[in-house]
Amino acid sequence: MMTAWAQPVLAIGPDEILDDPVLEIRARSISKHLRCVVCQNQSIDDSNAEIARDMRLIVRERLVAGDSDDEAISYLVSRYGDYVLLQPPFKAATLPLWLGPPILVLFVGFLVIVRTRRKLVQSAKSSAGSNSHSAADAKRLDAIISATPTSDDTNETMGKTLS
Amino acid sequence: MKMPRLIFLLPVALVALLAIAFTMLLSTDRNRDIIPSALLSRPAPTTELPSLVGLEGIAGISSPDFVGDVTVVNFFASWCVPCLAEHPAITELTRRGYRVWGINYRDPEPDGLDWLARHGNPYAKVGTDQEARAGLDWGVTGVPETFIIDRQGIIRHKHSGPITPQILAQEIVPILQELADEGGEP
Asked: Where does a domain end: A89, A117, A151?
C-alpha cells in the first residue's frame, strides 16, 4: 500500500519487475508499444487494468524464456491481432492509414499552389486593366512626352514638367 | 464567380458522404465486434484446464477433445452480469443438443461453483481459469465471450458480449447448423 502511494504514476507493480535489469528495460519498452485491449488507447505499461498486468507478465515471461523482442510481441499479436500494437504495421490493409495523410497533404498543397498562381495571374491582369489609359490619356501623355526636353536625368525632367 | 461556390460545397458533400458511410456501417448487425479475433480460422489454442473442485461429474477441458464434434466454448464468470443475462441462451443451446463447454474466467473456484449451483450448469465440461492464462491464449478481452469450434478443432466464430435470444437465433444457431452439416454425421 505504501509503495503504491509512493509511486502513483507507475501502473507496473513492484512484484512484476524482473531481477535482470536488461530484460526489465526490454520488457518496459515492449510494454510501451502494446495496447491494453480493454482501454482506450493506453499502453499496457500505463494501464492499471487486470488484463494489462497479465500482458505485462506474459511479455516478461517470454523474455525470460529467451524470446527476442519481436517474438514476445508476436506472441501477443497472434492472440489479439494487430490491435494490440499501438503503432499499426505497414501492410496492404493499412495502406490508406499510412499513405492517406501524406497524399492528402500533397493534394491540398497542389490545390493551394494552383489557386495562388491563378490568383496572381488574375490580379496581374486586373491591375493591368485598371491602369490602361483611355485614348484621351494616351494623347495627353504623348503630348507631354514630346514637349519635354530630352535629358539623361529623369528626376530633373520630372521636376521641370511638374513645376 | 461559380468556381469558389463549388468549393464551399465540397465540405458539405464530404460530411454527407461520411454520414451515409457511418450510418451504413453502424446499422449492420453482423461483425460488430470491436476487436476481430486474430484466432478465426486457426486451431483452438492448446488448453488444459481442470474442472472446478466440487463440480460432480463434470470433467475439465482439454483441447484435443475439440476434434470430432462442433463445440461452443463460453467464457463466463460469477462476477459478470451479462453472463447471467445470456445464461438462458447458453442453457437453450445445451437443451437443443449442442456441445457447450464453459471456461470460468478470473473467478475464485468457490464463486464459480456457487454461481453454477444457483443458476444451473449448462456446460458439459468446465475449466477453471483463475489466472486468466487461458483467456489470454484465446485472446479474450472480457466476459462473456463465446467461440464456435468446428469438428477439426478450428475456431470458426467468435462473439463478444452476451448472447441475446436474437443473436442466438440469427447468428449462433445458423453457424452451428452449418458446421454440423459441413462435417457430416459423426
From this structure: A89
- Residue numbers in A near B37 (CB within 8 A): 81
Structural domain boundaries, residue A110: 94-162
Q: Do B142 and A38 touch (CB under 8 A)?
A: yes
Q: What's the CATH fold of domain B40-181?
A: Glutaredoxin (3.40.30)
Place of cell 520630372: A158
* pLDDT tens digits along B33-57: 555 678 889 999 999 999 999 898 9
The closest CB to that of B38, out of A38, A50, A79, belongs to: A79
**With a CB-CB cutoff of 8 Å, which residues 3-32 of chain B face chain A?**
none
* Cα Rg of chain B, angstroms: 21
| Residue B85 forms contact with A (CB below 8 Å) | no
Predicted ipTM of the assembly? 0.75
Domains of chain B, residue spans:
40-181
Q: Are residues A65 and A17 in the same domain?
A: yes
**B36 vs A78, A79, A81: nearest CB:** A81
Q: What is the pLDDT of residue A122?
A: 83
Does the pLDDT at position A67 exceed 80?
Answer: yes
